[in-house]
Each structure stands twice: as structure tokens, then as C-alpha cells.
Amino acid sequence: MCYLLPQPGGHDIYRPPQTVRQHVFVREEFRYLNVSRIGFYTLDDSIDCAFNCLSHTSCFSVNLAASRGIEGKFWCELLSSDKYRNSTELLGNKSSHHFVIKSPCSSSPCKNGGICVPSDKNGIFECLCKKGFIGEFCEKDFKSCKDAYNSYKSNASELVTLHFGSNTTSVLCQMGDFGCGDGGWTPVMKIDGNKNTFLFSSGYWTDKSEYNPSGATTGFDSQETKLQTYWNTPFSKVCLGMKVNGQLRFTVINSQASSLHSLIADGQYRPTSLGRYKWIALTDSRARLQPNCNQEGFNTKANRKARVGILGNNENDCRTCDSVIGFGVDTTACGDRSSIRAMCYILVQ
Predict the structure, then answer these.
(1) 103/255 Cα distance (integer angstroms)
(2) For 218-235, what is each residue's pLDDT tens digit?
(3) Do residues 346 and 260 lie in contact, with contact meaning Cβ atoms separated by under 8 Å?
(4) Mean pLDDT for the stretch of residues 201-224
(5) What is the pLDDT of residues 23-45, one digit of tens each?
(6) End-to-end CA, the chain
(7) Strand, helix or coil at 308?
(8) DSSP state for residue 211 in the 8-state scheme
(9) DSSP for 28-94?
(10) What gap in Å lies between CA 27 and CA 227, rounded to an integer?
(11) What are phi and psi of 208, to 5 degrees?
(12) What DSSP string runs through 248-260?
């Protein structure tokens, strides 16, 4: 026979005999699981409800009357699922208790709202994570769009919440190859070359403050933004985009760093090797870049400056450069120094 044992906190468990000793039923007092039932019985002894479930291979839990009915019997429902798979269907009532076979999910191993699904093998379970969380126990949150891409395995751009300690930010993750290669690309900045927000001298290049974070959710449009990803997101690639006369072009810099802030904020020059023709190709036929100097990278500085860009000169040196293409230029927030005022985008992966 089965024994009803008192447990701490007022919960009871049904413990079956030795032949099925591994099965334990945990009671949810005055609860009813609203899922499909695979059997219904009226019983003289409530213990028989547990036996009926254990003898049915498709039974995962039961609803049992809290007290005897008019004929002195208990009603018992055998259920095809359990509260772990259907947590939103566990409802309160005054006439029944819910009993579920104890499983690896009983200890609530899944974090951050993840749903625990036990398997048929004893001791094995799977956590189905809510959006924005990954890991065996849903214990890890997304810190970059690369994390989201690796989780979703989709090339569809998606709005994702990134977590940086106690802070969060929502971004439109650009997935797949839109011009910079496959994977998940994390937006960092959007710069309007017709405005002065992100000139070379702007404090936004050196501080850790956001600017219009809602602009991160709107894709490749004209809303300027600077995000927490500027100082929080490590990468091995930087995607640079310029939109000129409605034409959007991209190029990629292979550069590894703990964040874009770590490459730029200290003002130290760090060279890159794209080559002048790739910088020119970012703009259009009106772009002006003189043939010499060609100093490029992060914090390019002579008499002209760019936070990310390339310098050009007529003379065969970098002392008197008259031309520049880049992001955070000294006289133009993004574009070239002469005629190009581009809408610009920086993403990392």
C-alpha cells in the first residue's frame, strides 16, 4: 500500500511500495492542473489514485478531490502532463489537490523563468529558456547579438535585451550577412554626419554614457545613438557602414578588443589595414581623399583627425593632411571633410 507522509511546510507526499519506491508524489494543496486527462475514477481510498497513475505509462500527475463526495468516494483524474510542462495551467481552487510525480524538476533547477521538462530517463531534464537567456540551466543572459545568434540560429534580425550586470539595453540585433559577413552583429553607435553630436572632440568618444538608447531598436535609420555596448561588448570584428544618398555600404575591420571604448577613449593611435580604396568605397564618387599619407585606424591624428578613419595628403607626409574619411572627424561627425555628410553605423562581433 501507499503511505501519506507529512512533510515540512504542510505538503504531503505519497510514497508507494518498494517495487515503485523511486516514485514520489508531491502535493500542491488546493490546486488543479487544467490539462487533458487520460482517466477518471471514483475511489474508496484516495491512495488508489496514486496506484492508478503509476500503473499508467502516460500519467505524469493527478488531480484528487480534497474530500469525499456525496457517495463517500474520492474522484481522481489521471493527467497526461505535469506542472513543469504547464506551469501556467496550475490553478487555485477549493475542492481538490494536485499531485505530481517527483522529478529532477522538483528542485526548480531552471533559472530566469526557464521551464523545466523532465525526460523519461530518471534524473534527466531539459531547461527551455525564456528569450534572452541561455545555458544548461538558463543561467546565462545575452551580452551580445552573437550570443543571440548562437542561440536562435536565425538570420532574421531581432529585438534582443542585452544584460550588463544590473543594467540592460534593448537593441535590434542585425543577423546574417547584410554586408559585413554572417553572424550576429551588435549595434554600438549611429552617427549623423549633418550634426555635431559625435565630432572628434565630443566627450561621447571618451566617456561611458549613453545617448538616445531607443535609437538602437530602429535599425539602419537616421536616429543617432550611443549604447552601453560601446564600453561593455568585446569583439574581434568591427562593421562600419555609411549611407550616402540612400546607398548603404559596409566594410569590416578585423580588430580584437574588450570594447570599442578601450580602443578609442585613451586617444592612442591604433593602426588598421583596410587600404584607401575600401575607405573610399564606403562613401561615393564625390569622396575626396588625397593620395599620400594614408594613415588609417583608431584615433588617426595629424592636422586632421578621425576617431576611426583614414587621412590623405598631397605632400608625401602626414604633417599637413587636408583630407580625411571616417567616423568622428574633427570637422564632420561622419563622412569626409569636403562634401560627404554620411549617416553612419558602427556594429561589432
Answers:
(1) 48
(2) 999 999 999 999 999 999
(3) yes
(4) 97
(5) 578 899 999 999 999 999 999 99
(6) 61
(7) strand
(8) B
(9) ETTEEE-S-EEEEEEESSTHHHHHHHHT-TT--EEEEESS--TTS-EEEEEESS-TTT-GGGEEE-S
(10) 48
(11) -120, 65
(12) EEEEEEEEEES-H
